[in-house]
């Protein structure tokens, strides 16, 4: 069964403990000046696998308010990045995390182009850069623990568990608190479903979520094309060979009538 | 050392000196890039792909389509009148793919692992298929051109051996090209939701393949016209007319497909929205589809014979159109998803310019020392026999 995390955005007050836990567990450097992990300018970059970004919104009473969004790789159920990788350097484990294997990576960056959420980042400053993104603490999950960020949250914003259970819980929670939440679970259907899912009191497009992504699995699009290629390869070669032998024979017949020169090859 | 019994020649003129200068700069940039990584580029997390992917890979592969198309026309379809362009086309395709391979290597962040895909198969990846096909096809092209090289250095047995392989090589080459020319389009199918809808469609692979089959002969036409100018070759009018018609018909198929696809997906309004994206798309369609097809069909329908000027003009338009199309997919269509602007750095620019310069120099060296162009073109009696309305201008140029 695959794991997931449900994020209740109404509970997050932006303390940023999760970003610290992430840096410590994954041994990533800090650069609060150029690459902050919290606030309005917080963005996922090579050293920031997770950030808490601040968004100005209007609350239910019509007053200006802040909302904090915990951002990281969403760990798609059918990840475009993993399907795009020509060496399988990105793989989804049966438990759910989409994990990067730098030893295999050749650095083509197709995963960055393919990701519908623009999550994978690159170590542009390095001589031999690696792709950089949240691994959902896959080694911790293997040991039966929860991801580092989830484990340190002081306000239980994030719930770690079986994805299917979390989804049911999310819908139950929304219908029990209809006034408080938008009736939508982000990540339930996006690109075929993601391991990380969000519920919110604000429309998702107002707080920086990519709501325009397709609802279908992206690798399925490509697979519709790729699975036809062996047939095309065999069929096309057969057709070309047929035409070749037909024309060769026709030319041989006409050449026996009139002399002509050979091919352009030496 | 001699080639074909003649001493090796390589004349130096101002144009070539400039190319040599660019090549030297290129070598410097390559070394710097291999040591320091991609710092010299303007690539960033928003624009992981830039000029190198566009010119060295996407455009390079499309324009090198002349190799498999002309080889197919000559060997498979048995159209003997295109004979004079086959060998030069295979040469430019071979050099083209070598440059593409090198360009791709430069773009790989961890380039020393370039051989990983051979052992770790990502069979669900279009990039894997592209990699394998380009690798195999470069080997195929090397074998296709090998007879000329081996004959030149006097190894006749090897030359004959590779000549004997021509038929399977050409057929295999077309199959491989079909796969990877379409893959360049399929690659962007995965960017659903990111690539602008004016370009994103499930038939991207068909469109890419069709445009490559159309632009391949057009590129051969441009190269022949240029080589004809520099080397004072005869303008092989029957061959060029055939290629022009080929491109015309294939481009018609492409245009019908492209416009009906836009219409069926309800994109006509965004096509005529006249914002930057729509203008770039209109420019691409105008230059690459509408204009060349207008010229082609107006000649065709009036039963007029195509002149050299018209053939070359159409070929140039097709090449520009495909360049715009590939550029639009890589840049214009992805700009909104990226959210910021990208402009190549000088390092990126000069690496690409240098790569092309090296290609031109190697091309000049090979055609001046090996039997690439048919020998008989300089014979006066052939010139008299040929029916060529505007061929004279080419000779004087």
Architecture blueprint of SSEs:
The complex is a heterodimer of chains A (266) and B (397).
Chain A: E1 3-8, H1 17-26, E2 38-39, E3 51-58, E4 64-71, H2 80-84, E5 90-92, E6 98-100, H3 110-114, E7 121-122, E8 131-132, H4 138-142, H5 148-152, E9 158-162, H6 163-176, E10 196-199, H7 218-226, H8 229-257
Parallel strand pairs in A: 1-10, 2-3
Antiparallel strand pairs in A: 1-9, 3-4, 5-6, 7-8
Chain B: E1 2-3, E2 6-7, H1 14-36, H2 51-63, H3 66-76, H4 83-107, H5 116-119, H6 126-152, H7 156-164, H8 166-186, H9 204-231, H10 237-264, H11 268-271, H12 276-301, H13 308-330, H14 335-338, H15 346-369, H16 380-385, H17 391-396
Antiparallel strand pairs in B: 1-2
Radius of gyration of chain A: 26 Å
The end-to-end distance of chain B, rounded to whole angstroms, is 33 Å
Oligomer: heterodimer
Using the CA coordinates, give the radius of gyration of chain B: 21 Å
The span between the termini of chain A is 63 Å
Shape of chain B: globular
Q: Can you give the mean pLDDT of chain A?
A: 92
Tell me roughly what share of residues is in helical segments of chain A. Answer: 25-40%
| Total beta strands of chain B | 2
Widest sheet, order of strands of chain B: 1-2
Report strand % of chain A.
Answer: 15-25%
Tell me, rounded to a whole number, the average pLDDT of chain B. 89
Number of helices of chain A: 8
How many distinct beta strands of chain A?
10
Q: Largest interface: which pair?
A: A-B, 62 and 74 residues
Helix fraction bin of chain B: over 70%
Helix tally of chain B? Answer: 17
Molecular shape of chain A: elongated
What structural class results from the helix and strand content of chain B? mainly alpha
Low-confidence stretches of chain B: 376-397
